[in-house]
Amino acid sequence: MNAIPAPHLASEQPAISAAVARFVQRPPRLLINGEWVAPHGDARIPVFDPASERQIAEIANADAHDVDRAVRAARAAFESGPWPQMLPAEREVLIWRLAELLERNAAELAELESLDNGKPIAMARMIDIPGAIQHLRYMAGWASKIEGATVQTSLRAAPGTKFHAYTVREPVGVVAQIIPWNFPLLMAALKLAPVLATGCTSVLKPAEQTPLTALRLGELIIEAGFPPGVVNILTGLGETTGAALVAHPDVDKIAFTGSTEVGKLINIAATPSLKRVSLELGGKSPVIVLPDVDPSTVAAGAAQAVFFNSGQVCVAGSRLFIQRKVFDKVIEGVSEASRSIVVGPGLDERTQMGPLVSEEQRDRVMAYLQSGRAQGATIAAGGEAPQRKGYFVNPTVVVDVNPDMKIVREEIFGPVVVAQRFDELDEVAKWANDTPYGLAASVWSNDLRAVQRLVPKIKAGTVWVNCHAMIDVALPFGGYKQSGFGREQGRAGIELYTELKSVCMAV
Ligand code: NAI
Ligand code: MG
Questions:
Q1: Measured on CA atoms in the order 269, 271, 275, 276, is the torsion positive or negative?
Q2: pLDDT tens per residue across span 60-109
Q3: What residue owns the CA closest to ligand 1's atom 12?
Q4: Helical (H) or strand (E) element with 444
Q5: What confidence tier does 11 reach under pLDDT thresholds 50, 70, 90?
Q6: Which positions ≥6 away from 341 have C-beta within 8 Å?
């Protein structure tokens, strides 16, 4: 569809600040036992600015030797020294201090995140950095509120003997935390906050594409005064650093966010030692639009649901199911919205959508579009990668699809939505569930009966009504089916990092 004008492209990537320029020139170091240490081997990984394709930094590819050092440090910090002696209220104060430091450095962190990941700086300021701070503050409060229960047993014993039984939650131990590149600092904070609240220790591995804010966070962790070894940060590739971390015998738990493919590998690798595993994986989340809605309002919501963060969101509303009566109007609205989005380099204040994170991701998304065309789908808007430097893909709306097409079945993780018509509620519930994933869904309607009938039928960890991607730290978050298991955030997020011990005393 060459009649469609390309979205307005903002200028070249603006210059970076002196503080960020200094930071990205740091030599490759790993945070082990409270110190920035040189990696064991010589392997390095280049880090790119996705808007200009220029290399901006170089990081270490930590090897098994580095992983072993970091796990030993985390083990020592967990078992002895100041950390296990610390009162919950003292951990709480430390976490608050870290949140304070993030707040004080918010402008620099937002710039660094935008440069590294490609996302608009306005988004990093509004979502990523405040979100990271919020996770820390929310979980700080939990440190002093972890409870067990006293239990009335029906045990029979010798006359006169009574039982006092209770449960306690204990920290699970040394946790390997592996995170993706779509919300780098937010994911790091989301993972570390419950570790710090419960008294666990961590070896954190950021994604190789976006390690910079995690490294800056490491500096702030030292500055906040956490004891050495409580948080260790290793940069490196998944297949090397990540795999060595997962295989390490002294890791008690693995917390992973990323692809379903790697989640399965991790679950298998954890089996011989039965490490605890929590997995937050991919999705192909349905957005279901019932006929009573105002099409233009819903179109704006549906566009936001899939195009936010260039579609690189695990809960992206990537499958749009629209009731026949409003289909054309909603599609028109979403297409219009997609054409009005300002696509450009992240550091440009005017940019509303940045490039994808990497060349690989851009090529992956373009290959999906190609396969969609080849299988007979129609591109209603977008569909191309602009001819310019940077890993850009224009926001894209695809219609005339069927449930067997690859673009309908697989997670694209880019700014691409596939839209289908439906007639009946029962039919749409079945279609919405016709996916290996079950992370999230949204239903758009004010018909109370219809909404209440639909919500229980949807197999997903989160269902939104008249909104999408409203993720709050107090609300448990996680997947059904192949979107993973375990729930992060809220009380459930604390429970994820504890073992439950039952104590039964004859008295
Ligand atoms: P990935 O799952 O390979 O990477 C995520 C993290 O896992 C990174 O830190 C990576 O280094 C690590 N990793 C990779 N292989 C590993 C291994 N064998 N052992 C231990 N750690 C390992 O994701 P990738 O390749 O960057 O993206 C591929 C697709 O995954 C995307 O197109 C998207 O569909 C999905 N994805 C989903 C995310 C989500 O938030 N649910 C986030 C990132 C990607
Ligand atoms: Mg991968």
A1: positive
A2: 999 999 999 999 999 999 999 999 999 999 999 999 999 999 999 999 99
A3: 238
A4: strand 440-444
A5: confident
A6: 7, 303, 307, 352, 353, 395
Among 45, 262, 264, 363, which residue has the most ligand 1 atoms within 8 Å of its CB, making it the best to mutate? 262
Longest Cα separation, the chain: 89
* Tens-digit pLDDT profile for residues 392-418: 999 999 999 999 999 999 999 999 999
What is the Cβ-side half-sphere exposure of residue 11, based on CA atoms within 13 angstroms?
7
pLDDT exceeds 80 at position 4:
no
pLDDT at 298 over 50: yes
Measured distance CA(404)–CA(387) in Å, rounded: 31
Residue 7: band (very low, low, confident or very high) from pLDDT cuts 50, 70, 90: low
Write down the catalytic residue from 92, 200, 314, 488: 314
Per residue, the 3-state secondary structure of 24-68, as one string, reads HCCCCCEEECCEEECCCCCCEEEEECCCCCCEEEEEECCCHHHHH
pLDDT tens digits, 416-449: 999 999 999 999 999 999 999 999 999 999 999 9
Give the pLDDT confidence score for residue 3 in this predicted structure: 39
pLDDT confidence of residue 440: 98
HEC readout, 296-361: HHHHHHHHHHHHHHHHCCCCCCCEEEEEHHHHHHHHHHHHHHHHHCCECCCCCCCCCECCCCCHHH
467 a catalytic residue? no
Give how far Cα 24 sits from Cα of 140, 212, 301, 344, 405, Å: 30, 8, 37, 22, 42
| 350: number of Cβ within 10 Å | 12
DSSP 165: E
- 184 CB within 6 A, ligand 1: no
Atom of ligand 1 nearest to the CA of 243: 19
Pocket of ligand 1 contains residue 281 by CB under 6 Å:
yes
Query: Using CA positions, which residue lies closest to atom 22 of ligand 1?
Result: 238
**Residue nearest ligand 1's atom 16 by CA:** 238
Mean pLDDT, rounded, of the chain:
97
Sheet with 396-399: list strands edge to edge: 378-381, 396-399, 416-422, 319-323, 286-289, 440-444, 462-465
* Contact assessment for residue 434 and residue 403, using Cβ atoms and an 8 Å cutoff: yes
